[in-house]
Amino acid sequence: MEARITGRILQSPRGRKKEDFLSTWQQPPANEGPPPPPSPAAEERPPASHFPPVNVPSKQPLPPRVLWELALSSGLLGFSFTPAPHAACSPVRSPAVAGRIQAPAPAERMASSGLQTKKRDNHNGHFVQPTNPNVATMQEDVLYHFHLSTSTHDLPAMFGDVKFVCVGGSPTRMEAFTKYMAKELGLDHPGAEYPNICVGTDRYVMFKVGPVLSVSHGIGIPSTSVMLHELIKLLYHARCSDVTVIRIGTSGGIGLEPGSVVVTRQAVDASFKPVFEQMVLGKRVVHRTHLDERLAQELMQCGADLREFPTVLGNTMCTSDFYEGQGRLDGALCSYSEKDKQEYLEAAHAAGIRNIEMESSVLAAMCGACGLQVAVVCVTLLNRLEGDQVNSPHEVLVEYQERPQRLVGHFIKKRLAAAGNPRDL
Amino acid sequence: MEARITGRILQSPRGRKKEDFLSTWQQPPANEGPPPPPSPAAEERPPASHFPPVNVPSKQPLPPRVLWELALSSGLLGFSFTPAPHAACSPVRSPAVAGRIQAPAPAERMASSGLQTKKRDNHNGHFVQPTNPNVATMQEDVLYHFHLSTSTHDLPAMFGDVKFVCVGGSPTRMEAFTKYMAKELGLDHPGAEYPNICVGTDRYVMFKVGPVLSVSHGIGIPSTSVMLHELIKLLYHARCSDVTVIRIGTSGGIGLEPGSVVVTRQAVDASFKPVFEQMVLGKRVVHRTHLDERLAQELMQCGADLREFPTVLGNTMCTSDFYEGQGRLDGALCSYSEKDKQEYLEAAHAAGIRNIEMESSVLAAMCGACGLQVAVVCVTLLNRLEGDQVNSPHEVLVEYQERPQRLVGHFIKKRLAAAGNPRDL
């Protein structure tokens, strides 16, 4: 059967000038879908002292399960909780027949969802919104690399309650984070299992516990951009609102003690500029990389709450290669001297860059464009000013990788503790 | 323990001008390691009619096991066969202690290897050669993303007999290809297992059967470049010679019937140019993408031998995104119209491009620079002139993905059939 986009989709953008479409990258076109979320700067929050009683000081929180159940029973979270394993395993039909099914438009099916009705009553208005107007008119949307489809899976039932999406390169790490969060939220139980929702493919893994979705993105910008296109569409089809996306990753540090955790202030490219460059229809297009400053400050506070490891706010350089792209001298190919390398890394440090990884810029650009609060929290595995090889003992590297998980786990519990006021979730 | 490069390595490139190093990307510096391989054009082969008796017509080959044993017993392959499961599972020490071990220089250990001595007597002189002079002087080389190291694994014993490296994005597909090749080469047996050599990490998978190594590379150029840096160093440390690398992948076709297999003539970028562009120390560097023309013709002949599916020789466009980067209208973000997309795809077709994927250009540039014969063989899952979504039935897509494996399996058997003359392997 031939892959095809409906005529309606193909006609939708027809006649618009290219400039109109380039401009839609950063904001949805008028009169399509829910309104775009206000910028974080425009968002108003009561000061901490105005928090309702449910928001207790972070140092002495109520037990996680109590907080979670308080938030749910209050109805103020704007969604009802569907246990992850059940929801994750409830396809309407086998994905194998996705291509043969003519389903009603997702929007119609979602409009009839009680879950969605409740969300409409209670959400904060910050729906996840693709900037592509075609998505709203697709009869079926096959999320090919997730092995999910709007015609084979009830996405609102499976994902409608998602408020936090944590992403990372390693599938194993994202599964471990899900089990960790289940414990932290008091949602685990003896023999509990957290099945891979994307079990039909080996491109990415996806796990869910409560309001936390955990997804792997592989290595590099292209692998991450494919995942993000489908993740953003998934959250849109599921009618999710007020979603925060955080990358919990590994990186090479610059001038930091190995094991330090960097909360990213700005994601910059290899020229130290806060931009994400891509080729679109053979032309170079540059986008700003926007990370939520207040979210970064909240995460820094979580590091201060924990006092378990050094936590630093700094710029993160996003490259497209681990070896030459990051100035390493130990790759199969190397076209520069040690002196060239040292000068480059020292210039990066002078520009406020504290770590180097391979995904932050596309995450900031795409999530920022679609109304998602986004942050990057990476641990440094080595100090690049002192070496290139990652050869610390295995058990040391494993403990390092758990640090961003502990920091973000603490952040999620604090956000849930504040859920009595939905403006804060 | 801090990661560190030995002073010897750091001093090695010191004092050279940057231009010198840029020039070494395409050729190893003089007087370091074995000589660079001659260009395919300079290589001399006897015409088919001069093949020795062991090289029978491809339509009526001797049984694979007979050919394989003939080649081994003749000693003309230049290596002795070590069964993959045994070799693949023989680490000298646990990778967990890699960082604490001071091993002798790999070159010294390899020089004392009988396997290597035999290789020196029989190889064709086309050793795999990193263009980075530092690699030859490293006391230990940790291949971090493979979870292998020169001080914890006997790489010559594990990989010294590798002649064919097949790579693809999907870990499952690369495992399936290994099992398929075991059958095709007559090397499988009841209950045979092919363990993942990179079991200590979840970044990539690696399997080996006879002279065939199968490695996953994930999605996109960055993920593939990380794998290739470590693969090329692995083949160098193992003293492999006369190695052919073939990507067996999936792609979107342009003007082809879905299920067609494209053998790549030239890997081009999103502007239709045969180049691979990367950022090195913050500066844009452009490399030519070199694919072996004679190897592509051999693969086309294999498609003609099989007569099982359409096989086309054409240019392949390598992009850094699956959605906007390939002109799709169904991503979360879309900044152009259907008309813009159609004009772009039609211009690509006019430029000789027959399929679009995300890894070919970096594969061609890096392997070509390091003395590896390289080719790209991808099946098309859909015709992009007719649609964007990959929504054919699952079983149809699975059969499509087997086609490059069958073509390359036939090619490997033909190459082994010609192994009586080592110049042809």
TrEMBL record, chains A, B:
A Gene Ontology molecular function term of the record: uridine phosphorylase activity
Residues covered by the Nucleoside phosphorylase domain: 163-413
Pfam families: PNP_UDP_1
Extent of Pro residues compositional bias: 31-40
Entry GO terms, CC: cytosol
Residues reported in the UniProt entry to bind phosphate: R203, R247, I248, G249, T250
Binding site for substrate: Q326, R328
GO biological process, one term: uridine catabolic process
Domain of life: Eukaryota
InterPro entries: Nucleoside_phosphorylase_d, Nucleoside_phosphorylase_sf, Uridine_phosphorylase_euk
Region (Disordered): 1-58, 100-126
CDD domains: UP_hUPP-like
Protein family according to the UniProt entry: Belongs to the PNP/UDP phosphorylase family.
Family matches, as PANTHER family: URIDINE PHOSPHORYLASE (PTHR43691), URIDINE PHOSPHORYLASE 1 (PTHR43691:SF10)
Record's protein name: Uridine phosphorylase 1 isoform X1
Species assigned in the record: Acinonyx jubatus (Cheetah)
